[in-house]
Amino acid sequence: MSEHGQRRRHRTVDRVAWILEAAARAPGGVTVAELARTVEAPASSVQDLVNGLVATGFLLEQHRRFRLGPAPHVLNLIAGRVVPRISQDELDGLSRVAGTPVLLTVRVGLDAVYLARGGEDEIPRLVPLADRHVARPLLRTAAGRLLLAFTDEAERQGLLDELARHDPEAVAEFRRALPAIRASRISRSEGLADPEAGALAIPVTDGPVVTGALALVRRRRGRSERLFLDRAAARLLAHIQERRT
């Protein structure tokens, strides 16, 4: 174990996280029985967790169905940590500037999660990953690698310790690439998550803080893709800078 300690999974915490995600993904809410199947736990145990989550505002109950409550949003407000918000029109505009689909991405634990996308994706099977906000491995996506690179150093070390238990080669490669990612503020994934997809990510910032990433995605066709994505990122960065001035 490093001096920072490893971020090990905890069964109860995992169950709470799965319950909250299941409630968030169900517009009409979920029952305790449905949640018990999701977390593979006895209904009585899930009921105890649900009761506590309702009592603290993380869940709302209506007609014995549970939806996500306001507490997660309030905690973000208290912390001053605002999830990056870019309207659909803005994302579509950024996609036109770049000439590629654009994915707005945040880090959630050990995963990268796409919040929204702009433009028409030329790899159709990747569309549901964005539209359903499916978690993707940090070290296998351009956006995930960028977000990990700009995570607080102590937290980053703990995350890498945990990731190294499952994918030591990817962690070693990321550590080698880390100085270049931080210096250039650009990260790449050339077939890491999908052999057909190449991606480049640039940061979304709130003042000096990196709050998210924009991933530019293109079907891999050969060596020219890196140059194409470089030029797309340059156009996008210049456009963003011009709007700020």
Automatic annotation (TrEMBL):
Residues 64-245 form the IclR-ED domain. It comes from the Bacteria. Residues 10-70 form the HTH iclR-type domain. Keywords: DNA-binding, Transcription, Transcription regulation. InterPro entries: GAF-like_dom_sf (IPR029016), HTH_MetabolicPath_Reg (IPR050707), Tscrpt_reg_IclR_C (IPR014757), Tscrpt_reg_IclR_N (IPR005471), WH-like_DNA-bd_sf (IPR036388), WH_DNA-bd_sf (IPR036390). PANTHER family: HELIX-TURN-HELIX TRANSCRIPTIONAL REGULATOR, ICLR FAMILY, HTH-TYPE TRANSCRIPTIONAL REGULATOR RV1719. This is Helix-turn-helix domain-containing protein.
